[in-house]
Design goal:
By secondary structure, the protein is α+β, with helices and mostly antiparallel strands. It has 21 helices and 19 strands. A hairpin with a 5-residue loop joins strand 5 and strand 6. Helix 7 crosses helix 8, helix 15 runs parallel beside helix 16 and helix 16 packs parallel to helix 17. The longest helix is centred in the C-terminal third of the chain and has 29 residues. The termini are far apart.
Length: about 625
């Protein structure tokens, strides 16, 4: 395959949104990503190894044109050598009858913070910390000391064995292609022929799982997103950024999965509908802790992720206000007849809200990770008359505007949209349209996630697998892209989904944002007084922000939320074994307790959304269509 890699690169350049030809910058990023692939935890190589690898791998781009990938083989030889050294050192430590876990160890888990060891002595010191940490995990999953030693030694033996297998050498060109794709942007990727076959089989069989998207970071399997309605989300125990450190099948002992390939971890987690799997979770919050979560495998229940409405009544003086809070956790839907669809559900709910004589709507997109683009456009149209909602620009710089073509305004009353760093993709399009048309007050985190790019998955010729490549960018009506920067709040308040590590801008090589000419529709607001909605001015949002700031400052629940987030930030990237060993595993909570706990966490955020709506109603009374007696 070595000689075919340059052709693969050209396929990406042909379709990629912004990277159209090989440059020194892309070469350097590819080499960096390849080294990261070889040693993601920065515990295998030392600084001089990395310098040597960078020098030798830079020549691969020229040599592979003649089918010479010897630089990849040389890198693999070094990788095997360092792995053998680690295996030997682990055995020397654990075969010592006096070995015991050192609870005083503190491990900087973020490799970007600690960097590569400067020399072999520093490397040994790091590996020793890793031994203590890994042994601690085995012991926490109820292994005896002797058994834990055997398991950890076997783990290092297995790693060395895998690196030495002939298959490892045949995969090197594919791994370089994957490194190249990820050097273009964080969402472009490469699937080898085997990986693509697995993907197609999984899609065809519709295997059940836990309803979570996972990634591999620094040797950990990390929960990136909980799918609303999935088994993981239903537990009310898991959060984004939780690390899965062990997996247990029903009736069997837990198996440590730290440093295990992601695809192997996923295979252990997946299974038949109705069966159970137990995950051991490592969470780094105020204190480092571990706990078990038992999940029933199932397909995502669309009913559980469907839009829902609740009502809050607030009295100010002699005036009572009825506020509808609509939770839209995703832009769900299917082409199958009779299947649930978010637009159909939202249109029905908005009608219900009008019939219930509510004064205002608080639309909660704070946990909405995206979904169907066309439905984000149609739902936006429920709140304006007509106008462009989103535009896409492709590789040829051609701009296509997707408008709301429904001339009706289903709701012209006051609107508040709740967002967070978890609000991504299609939810950013809806929030961005409401902000640019000055249709709603945007309330929540500093900004949304910031994913404003479009990807396609395309099979490659000659059985070379498939490429996932970024082919376009989204733009909201004011002409800005949501890429990288997201949609900014009009009023910023603390949210349960905060963190500097959440967002497109934290990902390697995320594409910069762009702008195009604004495409705000002139017919967005009706000339008919019965259908008109009142624009949210900047002066109004400033006034609302001042009131909100005063409320948040005096709310003990927000103070507690901020304190916890500051603790997480302070301890970020550091694992304290003492915390792990002293912290007993949490007892399981029943469903009612979990749901109440989750509601309590989110309550101040949603309550402030309702409070801002009451302020808005006092400043901007409802128009004729939604006026109430």
């Amino acid at each position: 395959m070595c000689g075919q890699v340059p052709d693969l690169f050209q396929y990406y350049f042909e379709y990629h949104y912004s990277n159209r030809e090989m440059t020194d910058d892309i070469r350097n990023k590819t080499v960096d990503q390849y080294i990261k692939f070889l040693d993601p935890s920065k515990s295998l190589f030392i600084e001089s190894d990395v310098s040597g690898l960078k020098a030798s791998l830079k020549g691969i781009f020229k040599s592979m044109e003649t089918g010479n990938c010897s630089a990849l083989n040389d890198a693999q030889v070094l990788t095997v050598k360092r792995a053998e050294e680690d295996e030997a050192y682990v055995k020397s430590v654990l075969n010592n009858k006096d070995y015991k876990v050192d609870d005083s160890v503190e491990l900087v888990s973020d490799p970007e913070k600690r960097g590569f060891p400067k020399n072999l002595d520093e490397k040994k010191a790091l590996v020793l910390k890793l031994i203590h940490f890994q042994m601690s995990q085995y012991l926490l999953t109820e292994s005896k000391l002797a058994e834990a030693k055997k398991k950890l030694i076997h783990k290092y033996e297995l790693l060395t064995k895998r690196l030495k297998e002939p298959k490892a050498l045949t995969e090197l060109p594919g791994n370089l292609t994957l490194a190249f794709a990820s050097a273009l942007d964080p969402h472009s990727s490469y699937l080898s022929s085997d990986a693509f076959d697995d993907f197609q089989i999984q899609m065809g069989l519709s295997l059940e799982g836990i309803g979570a998207s996972l990634s591999s970071q620094d040797g950990f399997t990390v929960i990136e997103e909980l799918i609303p309605g999935g088994g993981a989300e239903k537990t009310k125990l898991l959060k984004a950024k939780d690390k899965i450190i062990a997996v247990a099948q029903e009736g069997k002992k837990a198996e440590n999965v730290v440093d295990m390939d992601l695809k192997d971890v996923v295979k252990k987690i997946r299974g038949k509908k109705g069966t159970k799997v137990t995950l051991t979770i490592l969470r780094q919050a105020e204190k480092t802790e571990t706990f078990d979560v038992k999940i029933t495998r199932d397909k995502v229940d669309v009913k559980d992720q469907a839009a829902k409405v609740t009502y809050e009544t607030k009295k100010v003086g002699n005036q009572s206000y009825k506020i509808a809070v609509i939770d839209l956790p995703s832009f769900y839907g299917s082409n199958k007849e009779g299947s649930a669809n978010c637009y159909v559900d939202m249109k029905r709910i908005v009608k219900e809200v009008k019939d219930a004589k509510a004064h205002g709507i608080v639309l909660n997109l704070s946990k909405n990770g995206g979904g169907l683009l066309e439905d984000a456009v149609r739902i936006s149209g429920l709140f304006i008359q007509k106008g462009g909602i989103v535009a896409t620009k492709d590789t040829k710089k051609k701009v296509q505007i997707l408008p709301d073509e429904d001339p009706e305004v289903q709701w012209n009353g006051p609107l508040v949209v709740l967002i967070s760093r978890m609000s991504a993709s299609a939810s950013e399009i809806l929030a961005g349209a409401m902000k640019d048309y000055r249709r709603a007050v945007i309330l929540g985190s500093d900004h949304t996630f910031g994913k404003g790019t479009v990807q396609i998955l395309s099979p490659l010729p000659l059985g070379l697998g498939a490429m996932k490549v970024t082919t376009g960018m989204f733009f909201i009506p004011g002409g800005a892209s949501t890429q990288h920067v997201g949609v900014a709040s009009d009023i910023q308040i603390p949210t349960p989904w905060a963190g500097d590590d959440i967002g497109e801008k934290t990902l390697d090589y995320s594409l910069p944002t762009q702008t195009i000419p604004a495409f705000l529709g002139k017919e967005a607001n009706s000339t008919d007084p019965a259908k008109q909605w009142k624009e949210v001015s900047s002066d109004l949002t400033k006034k609302l922000a001042e009131k909100s700031k005063s409320r948040v400052a005096s709310d003990k629940r927000f103070a507690e939320m901020i304190k916890e987030q500051e603790e997480v930030k302070k301890n970020k990237g550091v694992i304290k074994l003492a915390d792990l060993r002293k912290k007993a595993k949490k007892p399981a909570e029943n469903k009612a307790e979990r749901e109440k706990k989750q509601k309590d966490i989110e309550a101040p955020f949603v309550d402030e959304g309702v409070a801002v709506m009451v302020d808005l109603l006092q400043e901007q009374p409802p128009t004729a269509l939604t006026a109430r007696k």
